[in-house]
Amino acid sequence: MRALVKGAVNDVRTRILLDTGANVSVISANYAKRLRLREVPDHGRSLEVRGINAGVLETRRRALVKITLGWERVYEFEMWIMNHSAGVDVVLGTDFMIPAGVRLDLFHGTARLLDEVMVPLIKSLSAADDEPYGTQVVGGPTEDLYIPDYTGPNIQNKDLDVGQQQKLVDVLKRHEKIMISSGNALPPPAYGVVCDIDVQGHAPIKQRARRTPLRFLGKLYQLLKGLLRTGLITFSDSPWASPIVIVLKKNGVDIHLCIDYKMVNAVTAIMYPTGDMFANGESDESSLVPVFDRRSFVDDICFGNKTFDGCLAMLDRLLQRFTECRISVSFTKSIFVQSKVDFLSHEVSSEGIRADPKKIKAVTEIPFPTSKKGIQSFLGALNYYSRFIQDFAVYGAALYQLMDADFAPGGDLTVAKRSFAALQQKVMDAPILRHFDRDKEVYVMLFANEWALSSTLMQEHDGKLHPVRFCGRVLKDAEMNYHPAEKEILALLLLLKVCYTQLAEWTIVTAASACLEATTVNLAEYAGMNNGVQAALEHTTEALVIVGDSRLAIQQSLGVIACRKESLLTQLNRHRELTAKFRSVKYLHVVREFNAAVDSLASETLESKVFKVVSTETRLSELVALNRIQDVIYEPTAKAEIEDKPSTTLRPDD
């Protein structure tokens, strides 16, 4: 994306080209001479650029310039000096735009600076204007184009006919530009992303470089050259320095370039990009049944569909989203439209989920440990596959209770060894866990003894009951005195807690947003809540649960906080008139991350200033996947069925 703005270089007014496709900023040599720019001496760097001219240009000249955007924002920035054919003398790339916080708003025809200062665009350059300038300005030659092999085992599927196989290849070819090879192939830089490390004002930490093994020097040199060429790394004069560590990849040929940030991490404020799972009580990912189609785990994504066309359409949407976000895909490591795939050390197929046979074999070959630490390592390895072991907690209780003294000479480990052998045998005989089917009846088997409890979720397939999930735990000291029936209730509650992702889901009935002129945040939150209540009335709902991230609106509606503002009191009275028409009304305040779908709608409306009602199935599906209200709400269907009343409609406030 390119756009022209009026600005100044060293207080001389000129036209400046803002180019998000260029990762370096340049100024023409003639213009630099006219301004008598003073070059940065002895910086010891050179730059190869292609895309700005027909061939490859090289320069070592840099100058510190003063750049003014609009009439008030002034920046000091080092630019490369070279003659080019961009049509203007000054080109600012992402090495300037990202740190300066410059964003192009083509809808309003402005360049937005920090603090929402807007600079009008002279002209937005479309793709048709790019011909004399080239495709993009790149600091150094880009990587050779990778041509995927569409005849490999990760593409070919014997269950597909020729027509289906060709449809799959056509979809992949449409997104070929984001495919990279394995090994040390380099993805494109993710423009628009700024990564800051909060060191809380700590003094710079500078560590000595570690010696690199001679056998890795050649590969390291080639890798660094590629990273520099593609702009993924640049030269740095930072006072912070951490040593690099070379790790050989699984193929035994390529290398991982790692940086030891141990000392930096010690002074860094801990910030989790997706929230701290341990802080809010959310279960660890390994204890949950994978929710395919809806969640990814770091950089591993697995999704499926009941039909080939549905799977292909989802793949097309996913790759299109990757293209928009400049996310690359390792082609040789990816598996497309297969009947069976490996995902997070599990084997996923249409039949269900089973543990990876290779990992299971490694667990079964472990000898009985000779220390408590060894037992803990065994249980840690086994815990990842505990969902496949019926009564895991019952057999594992004897191992969890072992102390260091039990491994001393004379200690009795007979029961522990028996439990150890039983667990290894159960791992070896681990069954396939069937996929949960919402249309089938659910059967639950409960078990509890003096010290542990377990539960099994089952469904009928081909006239037989097959397990869907095993779960269990050791009883706490106070729970050991419970009645056997109470222990079984605990086992049932544990099953419900673990399998909450497979309980009743919620569906969006109405998704709408509006833009209010000359209003406040509190008034907008009240208006959104009342609009949601009105929509629920139009759908003849009798029982309503109002979910919102506005603490003020929720608590004033409950009467917890007094409402004294006349403008808010008007909205509150209208809200009470509307809610009086329901059989029952409940309120739930959630943090914003659980109400992400509503937040997404509000952000779109704030930008477009247009009233909107979402009607497309694709967007509605995105909003359902985006929200996490289902994690904290359960639809009370039991009471509704007994009283023969309409089911509850869940309506987030706008």
TrEMBL record:
UniProt cross-references to InterPro entries, sorted A to Z = Aspartic_peptidase_AS, DNA/RNA_pol_sf, Peptidase_A2_cat, Peptidase_aspartic_dom_sf, Rev_trsase/Diguanyl_cyclase, RNaseH-like_sf, RNaseH_domain, RNaseH_sf
Q: Which GO terms describe its biological process?
A: DNA integration; proteolysis
Tell me a Gene Ontology molecular-function term this record carries. aspartic-type endopeptidase activity
Keyword annotations of the record: DNA integration, Hydrolase, Magnesium, Nucleotidyltransferase, Protease, RNA-binding, RNA-directed DNA polymerase, Transferase
Q: Which domain of life is it from?
A: Eukaryota
Task: Write down a Pfam family by its short name.
Answer: RT_RNaseH_2
Gene3D superfamilies, sorted = 3.30.70.270, Acid Proteases, HIV Type 1 Reverse Transcriptase, subunit A, domain 1, Ribonuclease H-like superfamily/Ribonuclease H
Protein name from the UniProt record: Eukaryotic/viral aspartic protease
Q: Which organism is it from?
A: Phytophthora palmivora
Q: What is the lineage of its organism?
A: Eukaryota, Sar, Stramenopiles, Oomycota, Peronosporomycetes
